[in-house]
Amino acid sequence: MIQTQSSHDDCQNWRMKMPVCVEADSDMIERCSFKISTAATSQALLRVLGLFAARDMVPTAIRSQLCGHRLSIEIDQNDISRQAAELISEKLRASVLVRRVDLIIH
User: Fold this and answer.
1) Nearest CA to 52 among 72, 34, 27?
2) Is pLDDT of 94 > 60?
3) SS3 of residue 55 by DSSP
4) Using an 8 Å Cβ cutoff, are 52 and 77 in contact?
5) Tens of pLDDT, residues 60-85
6) How far apart are CA 74 and CA 36, in angstroms?
7) Between the CA of residue 94 and those of 1, 20, 60, what are the distances in Å?
8) Burial of 36 (0-12, 13-18, 19+ CB in 10 A)
9) Structure confidence by residue, pLDDT tens digits, 16-35
10) How far is Cα 77 from Cα 89, in angstroms, rounded to an integer?
11) Is pLDDT above 80 for 4?
């Protein structure tokens, strides 16, 4: 069943009902952001998001901006273990398309 939202409040209520993915690691981070700079290619955003999808994670927010030959991506993730956040950061850094990754823990 697909649930649609008609207003901002409905969206917030719907989001609160979603199950949270909990890792076995007890060192949980309530909120973090990944700031990523990649080459501006058609595959860059899909490859970055694929690392979250592979861990069955849905980011809280995704923002991107194209600046010439560079794509800036910012991804917010709630309720993630420190180990998972660091692993995703390292996998992003290992990508040929990625120029820089900053992990910011809020």
Assistant:
1) 34
2) yes
3) coil
4) yes
5) 999 999 999 999 999 999 999 999 99
6) 6
7) 38, 27, 23
8) buried
9) 444 444 445 468 999 999 99
10) 12
11) no
